[in-house]
Amino acid sequence: MASIQNDVLKFKTSSVSYTMLDKYNTKDSDNTIKIGSTETQSKKLLTRLANDSAFELYAEIVADGNNKVTEVDARLTAATGKLVEYDQDKKRIKIETSGGEYELITTSKPKLTDEDHTHLAVIKGMVPSFDQMPKGCAFCPRCAEARDICRERMPELTEVDGQKVRCFKYSKEWEDAR
Fold it and tell me: Which of 115, 124, 125, 121 is nearest to 81 (CA)?
């Protein structure tokens, strides 16, 4: 996702613009925006994250024939900034970016890039467009550990240490895929 300006959503990999509907602003609405596993009726948070250059958002949308967004499922795929606080037990991180301070719940331990543990690691590259998804794993072009098997097919969803992952690295096929 590139930005949301004046209720117009734009993707980095497409020239098509989509209109966010007002229905996402009502608390009593059944129309929710998903950001990771959290649902919200407000597009304010989604807009704030989409417009902060410190975040990379991957979003799947459903739109009608007039490019009006009827469903949103967004995932934060990368964040850069100063790590202010990290609670490993609650998997809660607080980061400071040029756009402000954010408190996020993460499904995994964040990868830190420096010895004093204040900066989050970034996955390099662009998130692929929906119409240009790679044959195998969607993260394959951006993953430093990708193997041929990753480029050939999508990994199955599996559980590792109580968390769901979709990565061959955690499967029996990983060692055979050298």
Answer: 121
